[in-house]
Structure formats: C-alpha cells, structure tokens
C-alpha cells in the first residue's frame, strides 16, 4: 500500500489582487517523483510557493504527513521536512558553499553528518569548491548546491522548480541523474518544462492549466498520449 | 602636526559615534528592508536615560548599561508597535517611523524636561595626556576604542556565529532563509534590538564628548547616519564603519578649516556616491 | 466620475469659496482671521505635499526646504530693495525658480532609486539649508532673523486674507486640473504600479521629476505668502517641524484627495492654536505635538485614507461595489 506524503485539495491562491490558482489538487506518494507539467504561467511555481507558505492559499488545504500545513509560515513548513529549490536557486552569493550548507543545518548531530556525507558524495563538486562564494559557481553547480542544501534541511520532501532552466544539455543530464539518485532518500515534486527529462525520472504527472489541475496519470501513459501532450504542453 | 592629530582623533571619535548609530540602521535596512527614521530617537533616548542613570548612581559604567537597557527595551517596543503593523509597505514604514521619531523626541522633553542637560566624562577618563608634542584627550581615545571594540565584536558575531550567518544570508535573500526553516521575524527582532542598543550606546557616549545633550541631537545625528548608510552601501556593515570614519573626518577637518561647509561636504560626498555608485561604496548585494 | 457629480463637487467648493470670501466683511476677530489666513497658506503647502505623496507615491522629508526657499528669497529681496509690488513679484519668481532647480536636482539624483533614498536625501538637504540659513549671517541674519517691510497693499489684513484665499482657490483648481490631465493620470498609475507603467514604455523618471518640481514650486509660493503674513523671517521656516506639519495635514486630511490636506491644514492650525492656549492650564499642552504624533501614527496604521479619503470611501462604497460587480462580470465573460 502506497502512503501519501503530500496532499493538496482545492487550492486557491491570490498574489496581490491576481487570482493565480483556481483549483489545484494532487497527491504525492511517498518515495516517488511527481512531476508538475504545464505551460508558462499555468501556476506551477505558485503551487510550490503555496506549499511552502510563501504565497499562502486563501482556500483549500495542504496536508503533509497527515498534518494540515496550509496556514503555517514558511519556516515552519520547512521544519516539518519540506525542502525548497526555487527557480533561481536562491543561492546566497556572498556566502561560501559551506556557509550556504550550514544555513540549512538546524542541528549538528550524527544524522546530519550522515546526510552531509551522502550528499557530498553525490555532488563532489561542492566539496571541491567548499570555500568558494556561492555566487561564483557555474549554473549547474549552483543547482546542485541548492538541491544539496534543501536536502540538508532534514527534508523528507523536496520541491524542485525547473532544475534544467538555463543549463547546457550536458549539465542538465548530470543534474537529472543526481535527482534520480536523490529519489532513494526523499520524495520529490518536480516542476519541469523539459518534457524529455521529466519523462525519464518522473513516476507520476499532473498537468496544470490556468491555475487548475486538469490532468493526471502515470508518466509512461503520458508519453504515448500525443493529443494530451499537444493540447497542454505544446509538444508535437 | 599636533593640530592634524587632534583633528584626526576628533574626526575618528565623531565617526565612531556615527558608526554606532549607522551600523544598526544599515543592518536593519539590509535584513528587513526597513529604513527606521526613528533610529535617531533611540540615540537621543540612550543619551538622556544614560545620563540620568549616571547622575543618579555616579557611575558612568552603570549609566552606559542603563542606556543599553533603554535601547533594548525601546527596540522591542518599536519593532512590535511601529514596524510590525506596516511590514512590507515602504511608504507607510517611512511615514510611521518618522512620526514615531517625533513622538520619541517630544517624549524626551516631557520626561527629562525641555532644557539641554550637561554631562561630563567620568573621573578616570577626564583630561588628557601628552605623547611627544601631541596632546591626546582621553575621552576621545576611549570612544575610538569602544567603537573599534563594537566593530570587532559585531564582526565576529556576523562572521563566526550561526546567528551572524543567518543575518548575512537574510540580507541577501530573506525568503530563501525562511524556506530553510528559519524564523526570520525572530532574527529580525534580535537585530532590531541590537541595533537600537548600539544607537543608545552611541547616545550615552556622545554625552560627555559634546558636554551637553538636547532632544534635537537625535535628528541631527540621524541625518549623518543616513548619509553614512548611503555612502557605505545600504546593508553593508563594514561599509558603514568606513563611511562613518570618512564622514567624521571630513566633518572635523571642515569644521576647522571651512566651518560653514562642514555639513555641505557630507552632502556632496553623498551626492557623488548617488551619482556614480548608487549602491554605495561597499555594497553587499553586488550589482544593484 | 460623471459630469453630474463633478458639477456637484465643484458647486460645493464654489459655495465654500464664496462663504470664505465674504467672511472678513462680516466678521472681524483679527486673531481668527489671521489664523484662517495661515490655514490658507498651509493648505497650499500641504496640497503641494499631497501632489508628491498622494498622487505620485513619493515620500519627501525635506518639504520645509521649499517653504524656506520661498520665505527667504522674498524676504531678502524685499529687505535689500524697496518694499514694492515689483520687488515682491521678482522675489516670488526668484523663489520659485530656486525651488524648481533644487527639486529638479534632488529628483534626478534619487528618484530612480528606492523611495528611501528620496526621503533621506530631502531630509539631509533640508538640514543643509537650515544650517546654511543659520551660518550665512550676512544674508540671513542667522537665528535672530529679521523684520521686513512689505508692499502697502498687503499691510491690510483683509487684503492679505483675500490674496491668500484666492491663491488657494486658483492653485487648487490648477493642481486639480494637473492631476486630472493625462500627465496626472500617468503619475497616479506610477503610484499604483511603477513597473507596469515603465513596461508600457513611459520614462518614469521624467514624470516623477516633473511632479517633484511642480510640488517644490507650489510649496515655495506658500513660503512667499507666509512671509507676507508674518513680515518676519527666521530659520524656523527650514525646520523639520514644517515638513512634519505638511505630513500631518496630508495624512490626517486624506492622502491623494487635494481637498483633504486643506482641511487637514485647518484642523492642525486651529488645534495648534487652541492647544497652545491651553498650555496656561497645564504644561502638557505645550507638548501638543505628541498628541498629534500619536494620532498620526494611528492614522497611518488604521486610517490610512485620512478624513476626506475615508468619507469618500464610505460614500462611494456602494457605487464602488456595483462598479466592481460589473467589472467582475465583464471579466467572467472575457475569460
């Protein structure tokens, strides 16, 4: 039996006076990679921000690990065990790689050290550039730092917003591989425009359109469904 | 030569006082995007309450502690009553903190009376000593020492502790800091309290230096602190030290050589920075 | 606003104006008439402030500077020459030219930056002018200030009253025209959403600087009238309190309403007068500014529309609701 880690129901979100999310609902099973697809402006990023409490929902509920986190402020959401990798990666440019990692570490015990060791194994570059300011890293390295940092925050769930954006294809490949490896340790919600990549590592998908979840299913089903891809994703 | 030294020490001492005021202002601005126009009021309150305790107990040290406690308390009060309700709205913040400045200054007159109050350095710091043919006034050296100490301690906290790490990260991207499980509002309150305490410390240290304190000194020094914050780069701690010393020195030398231009020179410095490097000389945020 | 309502408000203003014009001929309490004259002057001053804060969203903390520039320019020119109408006009022109120049420079330096910068720079600049007025004794006679002669015409209190009132009326309608012009609409759009205005291709700086200059010039004119009413000038015209007065009047009266600041000027001036009289009863009334400071803070938090703004809001709520409903329906149809 699969357990649901995160569940959104009937989410409505406003940013200023703009009604961005009208009706977003989905479930994220533990241990899987759930991919949010949809056109630009469909509300994918806002959905992640709503989960984090950065743009709180006005209607609906967000349940994580059986607990209602809809109204929690961002720092409490993070403490519940959700790590966030924003679209711009949110690297603290003047802090070193090590300092970037340390901001996320709430405590220093054995389990944190274990996590650290594991994640540095996965991203050896971070070890190499440990004392380099985050702002001087390459795009791919920044992406890796952001993912590693979010993981250090005791996360059971990672929200990753468009990790392939602005990266060279070969770097995208690398980032995707590491996300696939992260899957062993955490559950992942991935927003991705790069359908090819998404289809490779995704287990389940949801399609957002105009602030609503309009379609869902298993990733391998979507790959075959040309009409659906065309309609919502603009892929011929 | 001794004239040069005296002016330099004078300038350094003034610079350190401005630094105590400006450092809190710049950190609060950098971290929370709040420009606290009431900051000078905390400076003046530090001076008056500190001198009051000093007169009452006869101990300058207790007076300084009194000022710091006043700063901490007023800091909590300001953050809670004035800043929190208008958090995120720039125009309202600017308007309300200036209004609070007005109330703070007038309250000073109600509590301590409308007349200026005299203050003298404590016995141990009175007078001067000679070094070669240069006469050094002890109290000014004391201020420079305290200023350097405050800089060193704050620098250590910012660079070497977890709270400092969070503050530095918060200056760059506060949303991300929150997303990493840190209650930035709580950190903000701590910074606000610390900044207010530094301002109050500056106030009580100024009292024996200038010999007299008055309600309007808050606004006068606040203007200098604003100039310093712009020159140093809004949000930059080290920048505020260098800019404060620059402004202090410029003030001291101009006051001696071209007295009528002493405020103008600071304005010109600020205008030059605004034209050529609007992000300030030591901007933390890199480009913008 | 429809034509009918427009006429209604214009009619109400006209009636008020006529009543005020007739007042000095039926009422001769000199203290009160002097006070009302002050209200007119500070009404103009506060209105110029509203043009910045209310219509463009710019916070200036140095508005006293323009007031002071107006006051000193005309005082010095009248004092050094004959106190005739000719020199008064010259003085006023010089005052407005200097104010325009200073606000232009302050504007191009800081208006492209965040709102904090303009507030800080104007505060510092005003401080500079205050110190200059204190130190440049050969020109200003420093803190002592000086008494000056003014043209014959304005020595008569009634004439002065009428001049200030007419100036207020003319400027009110001019500024209102300005805010309703295409330019004024752009300014208001900037207040609402700067990026959007910029993205449709307007040079925001340009418009903000215009607002800053117009506001500075009008404020300096208020300073000129102020000197005519006092016949004395000292450094207090540059004091931060003058800026704070404008802020209080604008916020309490109603930001962005133009008439609000004028009403605010009335409230503050009369309250100041009465509370100062009460200081004989208890010294706390000498610190009346605390009371206003607290009201001001509460107003910013709970009552940001001010008196006129709140009244208009209450009065217009029903219509606004209706308007919104139709808007929403249109939106539904559109989507």
From TrEMBL, chain B:
Q: Which domain of life is it from?
A: Bacteria
Q: Which organism is it from?
A: Pontibacillus marinus BH030004 = DSM 16465
- Locations listed in the record: Cell membrane
Query: Mind telling me which Pfam families this protein's record contains?
Result: BPD_transp_2
Q: Tell me where the transmembrane regions lie.
A: 12-30, 60-82, 94-112, 139-158, 186-209, 221-249, 256-276
GO cellular component entries: plasma membrane
Q: Which GO terms describe its molecular function?
A: transmembrane transporter activity
Q: What is its main location?
A: membrane
Keywords in alphabetical order, please: Amino-acid transport, Cell membrane, Membrane, Transmembrane, Transmembrane helix, Transport
What residue stretch is flagged as signal peptide? none
Record membrane topology: Multi-pass membrane protein
Kindly provide the name given to this protein in its UniProt entry: ABC transporter permease
Q: Which family does it belong to?
A: Belongs to the binding-protein-dependent transport system permease family. LivHM subfamily.
Task: Give the GO biological process terms.
Answer: amino acid transport
TrEMBL record, chain C:
Q: What is the lineage of its organism?
A: Bacteria, Bacillati, Bacillota, Bacilli, Bacillales
List membrane-spanning regions: 6-25, 32-49, 55-78, 85-109, 115-133, 160-178, 209-230, 242-268, 288-312
Q: Which GO terms describe its molecular function?
A: branched-chain amino acid transmembrane transporter activity
Main location as per UniProt: membrane
What name does UniProt use for this protein? Branched-chain amino acid ABC transporter permease
Q: Mind listing the UniProt keywords for this protein, alphabetically?
A: Cell membrane, Membrane, Transmembrane, Transmembrane helix
Entry keyword Lyase: no
Q: Where in the cell is it found?
A: Cell membrane
Q: How does it sit in the membrane?
A: Multi-pass membrane protein
Asked if the keyword Membrane belongs to this entry, the reply reads: yes
Q: Pfam families, alphabetically? A: BPD_transp_2
- Record-level GO cellular component terms: plasma membrane
UniProt xrefs under PANTHER family: ABC TRANSPORTER ATP-BINDING PROTEIN (PTHR30482:SF17), HIGH-AFFINITY BRANCHED-CHAIN AMINO ACID TRANSPORT SYSTEM PERMEASE (PTHR30482)
């Amino acid at each position: 039996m699969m357990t649901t880690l995160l569940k959104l129901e009937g989410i409505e979100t406003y940013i200023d006076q703009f009604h961005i999310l009208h009706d977003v609902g989905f479930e994220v099973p533990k241990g899987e990679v759930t991919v949010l697809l949809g056109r630009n402006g469909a509300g994918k990023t806002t959905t992640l921000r709503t989960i984090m409490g950065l743009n709180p929902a006005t209607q609906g509920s967000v349940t994580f690990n059986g607990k209602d986190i809809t109204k929690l402020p961002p720092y409490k959401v993070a403490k519940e065990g959700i790590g966030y990798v924003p679209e711009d990666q949110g690297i603290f440019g003047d802090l070193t790689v090590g300092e970037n990692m340390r901001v996320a570490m709430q405590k220093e015990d054995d389990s944190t050290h274990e996590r650290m060791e594991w994640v540095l194994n996965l991203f050896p570059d971070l070890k190499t550039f440990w004392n380099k300011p985050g702002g001087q890293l390459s795009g791919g390295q920044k992406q890796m730092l952001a993912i590693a940092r979010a993981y250090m925050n005791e996360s059971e769930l990672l929200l990753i917003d468009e990790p392939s954006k602005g990266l060279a294809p070969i770097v995208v490949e690398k980032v995707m591989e590491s996300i696939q490896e992260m899957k062993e340790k955490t559950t992942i919600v991935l927003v991705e425009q790069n359908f090819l990549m998404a289809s490779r590592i995704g287990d389940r998908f949801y399609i957002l359109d105009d602030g609503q979840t309009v379609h869902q299913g298993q990733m391998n089903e979507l790959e075959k469904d040309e009409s659906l891809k065309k309609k919502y994703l603009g892929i011929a | 030569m001794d004239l040069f030294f005296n002016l330099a020490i004078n300038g350094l001492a003034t610079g350190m006082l401005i630094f105590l005021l400006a450092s809190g202002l710049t950190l609060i601005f950098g971290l929370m995007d709040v420009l606290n126009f009431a900051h000078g009021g905390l400076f003046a309150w530090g001076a008056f309450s500190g001198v009051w305790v000093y007169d009452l107990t006869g101990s300058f040290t207790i007076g300084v502690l009194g000022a710091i406690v006043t700063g901490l308390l007023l800091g909590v009060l300001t953050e809670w009553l004035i800043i929190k309700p208008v958090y995120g709205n720039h125009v309202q913040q600017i308007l309300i903190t200036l209004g609070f400045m007005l109330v703070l200054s007038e309250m000073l007159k109600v509590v301590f009376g409308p007349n200026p109050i005299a203050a003298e350095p404590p016995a141990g710091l009175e007078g001067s000593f000679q070094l070669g043919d240069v006469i050094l006034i002890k109290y000014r050296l004391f201020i420079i020492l305290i200023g350097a100490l405050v800089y060193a301690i704050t620098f250590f906290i910012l660079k070497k502790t977890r709270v400092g790490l969070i503050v530095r990260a918060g200056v760059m991207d506060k949303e991300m800091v929150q997303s990493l499980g840190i209650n930035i509002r709580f950190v903000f309150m701590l910074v606000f309290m610390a900044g207010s305490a530094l301002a109050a410390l500056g106030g009580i240290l100024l009292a024996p230096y200038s010999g007299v304190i008055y309600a309007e000194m808050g606004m006068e020094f606040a203007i200098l602190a604003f100039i310093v914050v712009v020159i140093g780069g809004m949000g930059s701690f080290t920048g505020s030290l260098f800019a404060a010393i620059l402004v202090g020195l410029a003030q001291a030398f101009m006051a001696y050589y071209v007295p009528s231009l002493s405020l103008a020179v600071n304005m010109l410095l600020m205008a030059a920075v605004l034209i050529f490097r609007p992000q300030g000389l030591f901007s933390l945020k890199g480009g913008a | 606003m429809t034509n009918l309502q427009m006429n209604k408000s214009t009619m109400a203003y006209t009636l008020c104006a006529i009543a005020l014009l007739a007042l000095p001929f039926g009422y001769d309490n000199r203290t009160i008439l002097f006070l009302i004259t002050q209200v007119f002057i500070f009404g103009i001053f506060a209105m110029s402030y509203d043009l910045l804060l209310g219509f463009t969203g710019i916070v200036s903390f140095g508005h006293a500077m323009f007031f002071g520039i107006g006051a000193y320019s005309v005082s010095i020119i009248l004092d050094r020459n004959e106190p005739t109408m000719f020199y008064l006009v010259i003085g006023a022109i010089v005052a407005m030219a200097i104010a325009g120049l200073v606000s232009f420079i302050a504007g191009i330096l800081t208006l492209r930056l965040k709102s904090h910068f303009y507030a800080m720079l104007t505060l510092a600049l005003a401080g500079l002018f205050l110190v200059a007025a204190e130190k440049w004794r050969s020109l200003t006679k420093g803190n002592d200030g000086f008494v000056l002669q003014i043209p014959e015409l304005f020595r008569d209190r009634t004439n002065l009253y009428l001049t200030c009132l007419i100036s207020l009326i003319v400027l009110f309608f001019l500024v209102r025209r300005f805010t309703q012009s295409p330019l004024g609409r752009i300014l208001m759009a900037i207040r609402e959403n700067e990026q959007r205005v910029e993205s449709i291709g307007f040079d925001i700086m340009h418009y903000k600087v215009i607002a800053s200059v117009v506001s500075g010039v009008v404020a300096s004119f208020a300073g000129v009238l102020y000197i005519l009413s006092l016949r004395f000038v000292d450094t207090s015209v540059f004091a931060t309190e003058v800026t704070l007065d404008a802020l209080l009047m604008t916020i309490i009266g109603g930001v962005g309403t133009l008439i609000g600041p004028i009403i605010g000027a009335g409230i503050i001036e009369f309250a100041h007068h009465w509370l100062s009289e009460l200081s004989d009863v208890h010294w706390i009334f000498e610190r009346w500014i605390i009371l206003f400071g607290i009201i001001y803070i509460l107003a910013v938090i709970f009552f940001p529309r001010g008196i006129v703004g709140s009244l208009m809001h209450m009065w217009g709520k029903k219509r606004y609701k209706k308007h919104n409903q139709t808007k929403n329906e249109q939106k539904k149809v559109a989507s």
